[in-house]
Amino acid sequence: MDTGTTKMIARKEDGIGWMIFNQPDKLNAVSYDMWLAVPRIIADYEADPDVRVIVLAGAGDKAFVSGADISEFEQKRGTVDAIKVYNEAGDHANAALINAAKPTVAMIRGYCIGGGLGIALTTDLRICGDTSTFAVPAAKLGLGYAYGGIKRLADVVGPSFAKEIFYTARQFTAEEARVMGLVNRIVSVAELEAYVRKYAATIAANAPLTVKAAKMAINAAMKDPDRRDLARVQEAVDVCFASDDYKEGRRAFMEKRKPAFKGR
């Protein structure tokens, strides 16, 4: 698909929608046009029934995403009005990732820094190479972080580790990230892409309506009680039981074969 910029690559393969941050000469730092491309890509993948899983990755072998493209700041974030426009693009991109109904996976190779870590935290699962490093260097730059980004981090690693990440502003190893719960799995960097492909294929082979309902329920559980739309969650559960996939799952189990789910 046309992403509107060569700095973002979108391709579909075997049920996986790949979103690749493609600025390896700048360690995949995110530019304004890259932010604009994210919601377009997500909307396309959400509308395509053949896409069962969305995988985010960085081009090259040095970084997932190293943060924002600072070289644009003079032009894109030099005035109050410009900052507002820039921030809205980033907010819309993050919202598209957070609200994606389909499962999302971050394949993290190399640096995952600042805004890059923020992007990774919008995904459901994070799998990294054993040489990956993680950091939020805001305290070394005098930057302020909005509540939403800090809450996502604290929801994943807990308040104590979130404070350690922000207070020290240091780089954490892949193993430290695993201990904190920041990543789900660590894989040899040489095997990372093959592992993620197999992992995503496992998810893609499962009943998409069930996965969607589970994601809705888990996300609802993370919200304040007065913000949970439990009726919508129950509706998604009911759709599963009324689906052809539920019939297919039962038949496949009785016939001792692999089910062929259609998402309907």
Structural class of the helices, strands and pairings? alpha/beta
Alpha-carbon distance between the two ends: 25 Å
Query: Beta-sheet strand percentage?
Result: 15-25%
Low-confidence stretches: none
User: Based on the structure given, which CATH architecture of the largest domain is correct?
Assistant: Alpha-Beta Complex
- What shape does the CA trace take? globular
CATH topology of the largest domain: 2-enoyl-CoA Hydratase, Chain A, domain 1
The overall strand count is 10
- What's the SSE pattern? EEHEEHHEEHEEHHHEHEHHHH
What is the total domain count?
Answer: 2
Rg of Cα set: 19 Å
For the residues shown, what is the average pLDDT? Answer: 93
CATH superfamily of the largest domain: 2-enoyl-CoA Hydratase, Chain A, domain 1
Summed up, the helix count is 12
At the first level of CATH, the class of the largest domain is: Alpha Beta
Largest sheet: 6 strands, mixed
SSE layout and pairings?
Elements: E1 8-13, E2 16-21, H1 32-47, E3 53-58, E4 63-65, H2 73-76, H3 80-98, E5 104-108, E6 111-113, H4 115-121, E7 125-129, E8 133-135, H5 138-141, H6 147-157, H7 159-168, E9 172-173, H8 174-180, E10 185-187, H9 192-205, H10 208-221, H11 230-241, H12 244-254
Parallel strand pairs: 2-3, 3-5, 4-6, 5-7, 6-8, 7-10
Antiparallel strand pairs: 1-2, 8-9
